[in-house]
Each structure stands twice: as C-alpha cells, then as structure tokens.
C-alpha cells in the first residue's frame, strides 16, 4: 500500500480531517518580465508540486487551458508508473502537463497560479501530508523562454519576500519524456469530490483559484476523459 493510500484509509476509518495539512494560498504579483518573452498560440507547461490530483484539478478550471494531464516527469527512466514513482527511487515527480492557449492565458499567469494557489513552493520534497522527492516542487520548462521566465519569477518573488521562507522550486529540463499517469488518476478530484484527501487538500485549492483568479476562472473543468472521447 502506498503512502497516500495509507493516509486515505486512516482518514476514512478515523474521520481525521487533513485540513491542517492543506497548503495556504498566497496573493502574489504576476511576473514582471514575462510578456516580452512569451509566444502566441498553443503552449505546454509541465509542473510538479505534490500530489498531481490537486494540481490537475486547479488547471482544469483555468480559462484557456485546453488539457491538463496527470503524469510523471523529471526522472531518466524510459517508463514510469504509480507504484514505482511512489517508491521515491525513480527520480520522477508527480507532475501535470498543462496545454493552454496563449491568446487566453499566458505562461506567466500559469506560473502565478502555480506559486499562489496550486501548491506551497517553500516546502522541500513534500506537500501537505505527502513526503518524498516524488512530491517535490519543480518546473520543467519546454523552451528557453519558459526557463527564463520561471527563473526570473522565482528571483522576483524571493526578492519581494512574498513568502515567509525562500522558494525551493527547481527549474530543470526533463531527462525523459512526460509519462501520462494511469487512467484512474485522471480527473480524480472531479470523480471523487467527497474523498477525505480531496475534500481537505485539493478542493480548497480550486476554491482559492475561483476567489483569487476570478478573471481566469472557468466553472466547468476541462476533463481528460472528455478530450479522449473527442479524439
């Protein structure tokens, strides 16, 4: 049984709320130097920040995002699956591949949401109740422009001391392709809204997105299953 499965079982049996472990949202400024470096048209971002259920749920509600897929990135293995990645020995992190239309939402805004409501960027190798390098905070740039925007933004936020502690988010290139997670992990928060882990750790992130990024909010989430049906 994986670490997260153990937590879910314990919470379900003991009705122990995990709210204390939920990462708080932080109001932060947008990137200062992002606009000039960003392209126009479809773009992809790959982000890691704890359990992919919550990261995926957040971006599925962002206007302009056309697809958000849970998966694994950052390791050098030629394949990845949940059981091996959960061991913490593969080098992979639970990640989300976000495809978005830059006519509607910029990469800078994607990062602002990532640092503000999607996860806590000052937690090293953990998020909420999940611990291990597979839950690390990391950005995998898909271009040199993305890498520059991400690194400059981290420097900007640290210099402004918007968080109580320094940001530990890594900015690194992917050593292997992004691997989509198993089908049962996709759209997980939407499919299991009443599960204790989702209710206490991930639902607040989506609610914070709605409150803090109202202009970017989309009520109906874009789901992987619907995208697959469309193909």
Kindly describe this structure.
There is one protein chain. By secondary structure, this protein is α+β, with helices and mostly antiparallel strands. 35% of the residues lie in helices and 16% in strands. A 6-stranded mixed β-sheet has the order 7-6-1-3-2-8. A hairpin with a 2-residue loop joins strand 4 and strand 5. It is globular, with a radius of gyration of 16 Å.
- The residue fraction in helices comes out at 25-40%
Largest beta sheet: strand ordering = 7-6-1-3-2-8
Distinct helical segment count? 8
User: What structural class do the secondary elements suggest?
Assistant: alpha+beta
Mean pLDDT: 89
**N-to-C terminal Cα separation, in Å?**
34 Å
Q: Kindly give the count of domains.
A: 1
Order of helices and strands: HEHEHEHEEEHEEHHH
Main beta sheet, described?
6 strands, mixed
The named CATH superfamily: Peptide methionine sulphoxide reductase MsrA
- Rg is 16 Å
Strand share of the residues?
Answer: 15-25%
Q: What general form does the structure show? A: globular
């Amino acid at each position: 049984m994986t670490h997260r499965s153990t937590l879910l079982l314990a919470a379900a049996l003991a009705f122990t709320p995990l709210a204390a472990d939920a990462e708080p949202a932080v109001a932060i400024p947008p990137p200062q130097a992002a606009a000039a470096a960003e392209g126009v048209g479809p773009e992809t971002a790959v982000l890691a920040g704890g359990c992919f259920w919550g990261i995926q749920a957040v971006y599925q509600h962002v206007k302009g995002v056309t697809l958000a897929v849970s998966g694994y990135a950052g390791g050098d293995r030629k394949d990845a699956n949940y059981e091996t990645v959960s061991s913490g020995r593969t080098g992979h992190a639970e990640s989300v591949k976000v495809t978005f239309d830059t006519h509607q939402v910029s990469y800078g805004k994607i990062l602002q949401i990532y640092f503000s409501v999607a996860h806590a960027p000052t937690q090293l190798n953990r998020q909420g109740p999940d611990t291990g390098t597979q839950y690390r905070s990391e950005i995998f740039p898909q271009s040199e422009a993305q890498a520059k925007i991400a690194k400059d933004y981290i420097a900007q936020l640290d210099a402004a001391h918007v968080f109580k502690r320094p940001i530990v988010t890594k900015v690194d290139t992917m050593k292997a392709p992004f691997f989509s997670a198993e089908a049962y992990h996709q759209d997980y928060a939407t499919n299991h809204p009443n599960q204790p882990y989702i209710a206490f750790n991930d639902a607040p992130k989506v609610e914070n997105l709605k409150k803090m990024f109202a202009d970017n909010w989309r009520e109906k989430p874009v789901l992987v299953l619907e995208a697959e049906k469309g193909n």
